[in-house]
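Researcher: We're teaching a course module on how sequence relates to structure. For the next exercise, students receive a sequence and then see the predicted structure as tokens, so they can try to spot secondary structure elements on their own. Here is the exercise chain.
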Amino acid sequence: MATVIFTAIGSLIGGPLGGAIGALVGRSVDGMVLGGGNREGPRLNELAVTTSSYGAPLPRQFGRMRIGGQIIWATDLVEHKDKHGGGKGKPSVTEYTYSASFAVALASRPAGAIGRIWADGKLLRGAAGDLKTGGAFRFHSGEGDQAVDPLLEAAEAAGQCPAYRGLAYAVFENLQLADFGNRIPALTFEVLADTGELSIAQLLGDTLEDCDAAVPLTGLQGIAIEGPLVELLSALDPLYPVDCDACDARLTIRPSRRQTAAIALPEAATSNNREDFGGNAGFTRKRAPNPEQPVSVLRYYDFERDYQPGIQRASGRPLPGQPRTVELPATLGAEAARHLVEQAAKRNSWARQTISWRVTQLDPAVRPGAIVTLPDHPGQWRVSDWEWREHGVDLTLVRHAVLGIATPGSDSGRVNPIPDITIAPTRLVAFELPWDSNALTPVPLLIAAASSENAAWAGASLFADQGDGALLPLGTTGRARAVIGTADAALAPASPLLFDRASSIIVTLAAPDLPLANASMEQLAMGANRALLGPELLQFAAAEPLGAGQWRLSGLLRGRGGTEDAIASHLAGEAFVLLDGTGAVLDPAIAGMVPGTQISAIGIGDDVPAVSPVLLAGIGSRPPAPVHARIIPDGEGGIALTWTRRARGAWAWTDAVDTPLNEQAELYEVTFGPLQAPLARWETTTPLLALAASALAPLIAALPQGPFAIRQRGDRGTSRPLTIELP
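Model: And here is the predicted structure for the students to work with:
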């Protein structure tokens, strides 16, 4: 508080310099009033992200850690231009995206593997090794025979690029930056440097020769060494106490309490020197009246919370002043961290009791770290140091804590991790829709409905394949998933003129989370629940979920949009698409729409493109087939053939209003005989064809029952035939 007050006063009087002086004075006052807030060990960074600082130290990583790293090589941003549209006088749209290639140094010692990668806080690479955006990733573990990265070698020329042996680093090639504001994002990496339990011997490495330091660091998942090793060891000492023994030929660092049984010391040796401690008793016992604050707070990286900083406090009544905090740049679980801080606090509390004990003969096993018992003094004691004197060996003993009591339970708290979902392949259905008489609607109206098995799918690029091997870009699908699937069985035939209450169809959608809903008759009349099932357009009133993405559709209106000729041609496994407005509208001028045209889509999760033919191709250009054909005898051996026309876009048939033609001229073609090789052909501009007996007789003689086929000719195509046989 004083720091804030004095900083404000200093800034008011003397500007920035006065503010700095005021802050210094305020910190002094806070230190005298509130205490210093003791901290031990290297400062725990709040998940430092990737930087590029020349000369910055690169830590050594052990176990599993989440780190930022240093960018050691990068290219300029690469611009990608994608042009859409522009056909037949339409305006074109040009989209610009950017990518970059760069290398990030991660550890100054070999590392086994890379796990997840975060970019600007979002998951860039999952645990399965899949990138969530476009680009390629390579990891070099830093072994002694490490080869040069091919991208770096190509950019810097052969022989000019180091292999960075002994340095673990990652390379991103053409990483797409659209999701990160077209800049290299702030990255953090999950480094899996070692497997198994860590030990102090691993941390020391070859720093000390002829040293035995096989001290297990139980519960420690990973740790980073950035500064001097002595700083890290001093931070570990309150949590993992060790004893250094240099009495033998080699230095031995061993954990305390390794003994299976305590060593019994003899009676204390007396001294006739008044200056010696204890006098005739041979020992002195003390209890520190003002002990140093015991370790009661531990800060660490919690791997159960994606390595976010965690904190654990020792139980018990807090002592006056600021608690003693250990900041450990290590990965721990909440249970392990709580256990460590509880044990450290207990050891510090028991260590307040000390005894100075004199012996004249010293057992070689009694050395610093040994556990001993004393005559007439209960409990166990640990030898902290010794000193040779004239009248014997003076041992300094501290009370050995009993650590068998169970540690209170702890957890990491509520966590909301970033979902790690592997991007599934793209599912694609391409189709053409009937014209809706809107002058702004393109003809033909081509739609590419794309979807995937999960929400991690981020869209795909679309291409047209006209069969010549060339892929013509058509833009992208967008991120919205269409409701698509497949039919489990073939849909039974029914009348297109009646509400089909008997038939039903089970469809399996591309993902279990894709929705369908019921619709009332009024909603059906307004166009709700329109769907494409293979070659037929239909509507459904009821959608019953069956689980696992399966739905039963019933209450059907069949043959919508002029597709009544496809009612009897359904197959199992054909495509299902809910026509809810989702899907990418394709430019027919680019797609070409030649026979055999296919639409392809490829996204991040696709090893091979998803390919679909264009269903209902041509339905928007040709008029629907006429209906209600009748043959009326004229009483003289001739007939009058009549029918009712239909028109493109005239799907709402209003009573007492004639159907709009939507063509420049009304023209029909009538044939008699086989569709591919008719015996006769007529053209008429009205829905009527009159044949006299003289013209009809030879046709009946050749084919007694016909049939007649009626087609309407439009501006863009010819309808499918309506057939009728002679009575």
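Model: If you want an answer key for the exercise: The CA atoms of residues 390 and 526 lie 109 Å apart. The first strand starts at residue 39 and ends at 40.
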